[in-house]
Write a structure and sequence with these properties.
Elements lengths: L12 E3 L4 H11 L3 E4 L3 H8 L8 E4 L9 E4 L2 E5 L4 H6 L1 H6 L1 H8 L4 H4 L4 H6 L6 H6 L3 E6 L2 E6 H6 L10 E8 L7 E8 L10 E9 L5 E10 L2 E5 L1 H7 L6 H14 L10 H21 L1
Parallel strand pairs: 1-3, 2-3
Antiparallel strand pairs: 4-5, 5-8, 6-7, 6-8, 9-10, 10-11, 11-12
Helix pairs in contact: 10-11, 11-12
């Protein structure tokens, strides 16, 4: 193991806590010199590309039972943060209850990566391709922080305002409402980008909502992400759609709102304008399909 870290210095010390509390206390004790590790796929890639320094302390989450298991009950899925992406994708009940989440997970990296990578790690990276789908599903997180366990909306945690997110937070579980029989809701997830390597997509969008008996949209939630941008909800476009019936004029307005609100992050592969335009196109194309039904 030490050989793998030789060009970065000495091998880090590995800690194997048995509880969430122990893991968090270790992270607080060692500060920025320590990192949580579960699947470790993204971290390993960053180390190999020399884009991230190896910490002096690795806090393994492998032996913490509270971070494992997938439980579906009363219209909610509770997913342990240490569950692998493959385990999430392969859970038939979860796939049926949260189809866009399953679609998002199925498009992350290669099967060999998904065999190790975890849902908590994807969220903890802040740029994971599963996050837009989870935002559209209005997912919540159970997080361990300084004052113990705290249940937060994923959106709130990502934004980090008012102390919602701290550097040593440990995500315990992901909580998602599941689709029920007879549910008239709609949901979509779309992504474009480079998948030859383990890198974030160029543009990833998701949406969900319902259409009432009068053809009006209700509870619309839209999100966008990709590249180095932290995915976020597109509230202006949501407000423009909620309580309205779909029309060409409305979609034209929504397209422009998405481009204005989405805080895209450009890089060598795509600029901000491209990412904004691609995201707006992907989302409005889904509503065009809904309009034509």
């Amino acid at each position: 193991m030490a050989m793998e870290y030789s060009r970065f210095g000495e091998a880090p010390e590995v800690w194997e806590p048995r509880t969430v509390e122990e893991a968090w206390l270790l992270r607080r004790k060692f500060g920025e010199t320590a990192i949580y590790v579960s699947g470790g796929t993204l971290i390993r890639t960053q180390w190999e590309n020399e884009t991230r320094r190896v910490g002096d302390h690795l806090i393994s989450l492998a032996n913490i039972a509270e971070l494992k298991g997938i439980v579906l009950s009363e219209g909610t899925a509770s997913i342990g943060a240490a569950e692998t992406l493959n385990d999430c994708k392969g859970n038939k009940a979860l796939e049926a209850g949260c189809p866009i989440m399953a679609k998002a997970i199925g498009g992350i990296a290669a099967p060999s990566i998904r065999h190790l990578a975890t849902i908590g790690g994807n969220i903890g990276s802040l740029i994971g391709d599963a996050i837009p789908a989870l935002l559209a599903l209005d997912a919540e997180l159970l997080v361990y922080q300084e004052h113990g366990r705290r249940r937060l909306a994923l959106r709130e945690w990502l934004e980090g305002a008012g102390g919602a997110r701290w550097q040593d937070d440990l995500v315990i579980r992901v909580l998602v409402k599941t689709k029920q029989a007879g549910d008239e809701s709609f949901a979509f997830y779309e992504k474009v980008g480079r998948r030859e390597s383990f890198t974030p997509s160029l543009a990833t969008v998701a949406g969900a909502g319902t259409v009432d008996e009068n053809g009006e949209l209700k509870e619309v939630r839209l999100s966008a992400g990709g590249g180095a941008a932290i995915p976020h909800r597109l509230t202006a476009a949501e407000d423009a759609l909620n309580g309205t019936s779909l029309s060409e004029a409305t979609l034209s307005v929504v397209h422009e709102m998405i481009k204005r609100q989405y805080a895209a992050a450009g890089d060598l592969f795509a600029g901000t304008d491209y990412r904004k335009e691609a995201s707006a196109n992907l989302i409005t194309a889904q509503f065009w399909k809904l309009l034509r039904k």
